Amino acid sequence: MPDRPDLLPRLGAFARLLHDAGVEAGPRRLTDATRALTFVDLKMEPDFRNALRAVFVSRKDDIATFEAAFDIFWAPPNPHAAAGVIPGRGRSLPLSPERALAWSNALGLNSSQLNRQQDTNVVPETSSGYSAQELLRQKDFDAMTWQETEQVRRLLEQAPWRVAERRTRRLRAARSGSIDLRRTARHAIRSSGELVRLFRRRPRLRRRPLVLVCDVSGSMERYSRLLMIFAHAISRREDLEAFVFSTRLTRITRLLRHRDLDRALASVSKGVHDFSGGTRIGDALADFNRRWARRVLGHGAVVIIVSDGWDRGDPSQLTAELIHLRRSAHRLIWLNPLLGSKGYEPLTRGMVAALPYCDDFLAAHNVQALDDLGQLLAGLDRRSARR
Amino acid sequence: MTAPASIDDVERRLRERRYIGDRGLATSIFLALKLEKPLFIEGEAGVGKTEAAKVMADVLGARLIRLQCYEGIDLAHAVYEWNYPRQLLHIRLMGEGEDRRTAEREIFSSDFLLRRPLLDAIDNDDPTPPVLLIDEIDRSDEEFEAFLLELLSDFQVSIPEIGTIKAKHAPFVVITSNRTREVHDALKRRCLYHWIDYPDLEKEVEIVRARAPEAAESLAREVAALVQGLRSMELYKVPGVAETLDWARSLAALGATRIDAALVDATLGAALKYQEDLERIREQVPAMVEKARGA
After folding, report:
1. Secondary structure of residue B176 in the 3-state scheme
2. Does residue A365 share a domain with residue A230?
3. DSSP per residue over B81-142, as a string?
4. Which partner from A271, A339, B41, B242 sits 20 to 30 angstroms from A371, CA to CA?
5. Alpha-carbon B125 to chain mean position
């Protein structure tokens, strides 16, 4: 536990550690932390920890990082401790390798105690046979030539469509619509209570959010890069939540945030560990429905699933999850790159199970197909879906 | 009532009011009071976020002012609105000769003001500053968040016809969110943060005992164990503590002091709110009951 004299500088260093690990810990928070600590008994480790957590953390996702940083930073320094002895060794901090090295030197730890790189190489347990060799390759997207990439990106960035708007519950002044009592009365008061003029208002419009759930398993390999470019292009102008799955579901919304396409793609390929693995669509959607649906499907969202439907999972599970998903989305669109090839019929088990529950079934094998999707999105109804 | 003097004091007072929270929550509350910052509480549905604010009002001996957020909530619903019908009537009833200036001043006075929760929280004569609960902020939209940000930084509201109204004493603000969307960082940055997790078995038993005293100890324990089991299963909607309490109360109302498969099957709807979840779990009821009875 800290003792008083060097508490402030140590607190500053702790804030920098949090900052390096991606938790916002600016001067304002540091000031708050300093003030907060004057109200707790510093000898009580749990209170000290709780106080710092209340100040520095502001979202659930940061709690684990905070706990790991706290354990490493405020634990008594012991360079000779064997792995697993220092409390919190099980948790790791998302630090870049250089930063991790600097911190482990500063804190007298051995660098493996800080660096997260190590756990990306751990092969996760798999429960079923067909994807037992879940391919944890940190794959580069290099299927397309540089020129092609550039062309596609430009085409997608310039695509003339925007996602359709929906009516919100917020009202704004308008020429027609229902009567705006507030403004009408205001005006009437000025004319001694005569209703000289009626003011009106109508719902404000907002673009619908898009949720993209992309299959990046082995069979989709040829399209993955193109789809990620597509996702990046629309994330630049629409309200987009993006997920990819092969054997498990990964949210890539934040990874796509880089303005620069190449950096965004690099962070996606770094953050997603099962590119070109096996496919379990049902599992991925089950995970989506339970963990994410409530958080990303508000406000009349449109869900787009991109997959060829090659699924080794249980078709009845896929059906059940799609039914659920469809109920919480404004519209459920399935894109299948194979639909573009001549003579293709959606006969794979997954596709057969999925088709009856999707509102639309479209191709996604080239830019033209993605443009068709754009037209569809631009033409969606403003009202909520009736089913 | 005096303000809590220490974290222990907060913990004790919460407990006296039958709110079983963890030390972390008590610490956050204590610091929020001391630093005069809003407390932002997140957690899954039914873990006791709103209840925490209600109990805090009681702990402080303050009035609870609650603002329930929803999509499209605006200043007219959250802060103030002029009572237009009354104003119109008043102006029509006035004599011809009266001065228009005076008349306007009259109808734009506080007599004609409809005070909504946020104005009430800032402008009141309460002996103890009230507890302002801004409930489920994730349901409101960005415009409203931006307004709150302003309000929470200086606790003042300006009404053009009246002027700026500033709080004499800042209210104790509790904001809750179910995380149906991510609330903007700028707003969270002004607050202290606490995530309420599901309680462990022992704590949940304690909560049931405190909140649903009509349930026998054996029943409380078995229901809590059942719910703990349900939380580890893949469900669309995981039952919260509120569901545990409902369930314990329902079973107690049926006169049960222990659970059995038939009772659980009949009352499963108290815990599970999705048809798919109900169907899936129904088959496993006997096994789950057996396990919970052994807990």
Report:
1. strand
2. yes
3. EE-HHHHHHHHHHS-TTS-HHHHHHHHTSGGGEEE-HHHHHHS---SSPPEEEEE-GGGS-H
4. A271
5. 23
Residue of A nearest to B93 (CA): A193
**How far, in Å, CA of A41 to CA of A229, rounded?**
53
Check: CB of residue A169 under 8 Å from CB of residue B72: yes
Pairing verdict, β B80-82 and B113-115: antiparallel
In angstroms, the CA B205 to CA B230 distance is 15
- The chain-wide mean pLDDT, for chain B, equals 91
CB B188 to CB A59 under 8 A? yes
User: Phi-psi region for residue B117, left (φ > 0), alpha (ψ -120 to 50) or beta?
Assistant: alpha
Asked whether the predicted pLDDT for residue B53 surpasses 60, the reply is yes
Residue in chain B lying closest to A325 (CA): B236
Asked if A298's CB is within 8 angstroms of B181's CB, the reply is yes
For residue A128, pLDDT over 90 is answered with no
Kindly determine whether residue B27 and residue A51, on different chains, have CB atoms separated by under 8 Å. yes
pTM for the model: 0.79
Residues of B in contact with A32 (CB under 8 A): 35, 37, 192
The answer for A300, left when phi > 0, alpha when psi is -120 to 50, beta otherwise, is left
* 3-state secondary structure (DSSP) of residue A210: strand
Residue A82 located in a structural domain? yes
The CATH number given to B7-76+116-196 is: 3.40.50.300
Confirm or reject contact between A314 and chain B (CB < 8 A): no
Instruction: Report the distance separating Cα B66 and Cα B133, nearest Å.
Output: 5
Interface of B with A in 222-281 (CB under 8 A): 234-236, 276
Q: Would A128 be classed as within a structural domain?
A: no
pLDDT at A238 over 90: no
Domain that holds residue A201: 168-206
Asked whether residue A174 falls in the same domain as residue A76, the answer is no
Q: Tell me how crowded residue B127 is: count the other CB atoms within 10 A of its CB.
A: 10
Q: How many CB pairs under 8 A join A and B?
A: 116
The rounded distance, in Å, linking the Cα atoms of B122 and B32 is: 18
pLDDT over 60 (residue A120): no
Cα dihedral value B205, B206, B209, B210, nearest 10: -150
Q: With beta carbons under 8 A apart, name residues in chain A contacting B107.
A: 189
Q: Answer yes or no: is pLDDT of A143 > 50.
A: no
Contacts of A35 in chain B (CB under 8 A): 34-35
